[in-house]
Specification:
This protein is α/β, with parallel strands linked by helices and about 240 residues long. It has six helices and twelve strands.
Length: about 240
Amino acid sequence: MIGKIYASPAKALNGLLFDGMTIMSGGFGLSGNPESLIPEIRASGVTGLTVISNNAGADGFGLWMLLETRQIARMISSYVGENKLFESQYLSGELQLELNPQGTLAERIRAGGAGIPAFYTKTGVGTVVAEGKPTEVFEGEEYLRETWLRADLSIIKAWRADPSGNLMFRKTARNFNPEMATAGKVTVAEVEEIVPEGTLDPDCIHTPGIYVDRVLLSTINEKRIEKLTTRSREPAT
């Protein structure tokens, strides 16, 4: 190991996993998923997990792997989507689900990283989202109080890293990943490329290395497309 760099997903997670822990997992749809780390969590056999993620992957991919083995007890997310396993486990009562508006979920994670225990938002006022939550009136408008989200472990995926753990994300993979990096007690980042120290332009770093504890070179980079729509090419005239 040199600096924060670990040789494999298994080594990067060594000593971090335990039953009943809370894990933040980056990704939006199938973009930016920590593809190499999730299979290692599955292989570890830890159970009773609370997982904070925008969604739970898709059939056969991403967090679906942990749903299949019933290692996830509770999801805090914003989108059930096309994941039939996620849907069936929730409807059968196997899986606890705290469904959040997507912007609220992002802000709760950001607040966790920023050390802000609670904030107010109009999103969800007057709906089931507000049930059991305090409200307050500001300037004649009712707002709902939401609380921060933090985790024992954040697993994220980036494009590039240097040995200090500074990260760059590429396009839509820069979704929940940067915020989750700040909100975990320990953050493990898998990356597509590790570059020498001093290579990254400081103005282009999305997540400073102070938030990243361990870095590994990703072993899986499938970059699947969740829904592929094509049309037949029109014949040339």
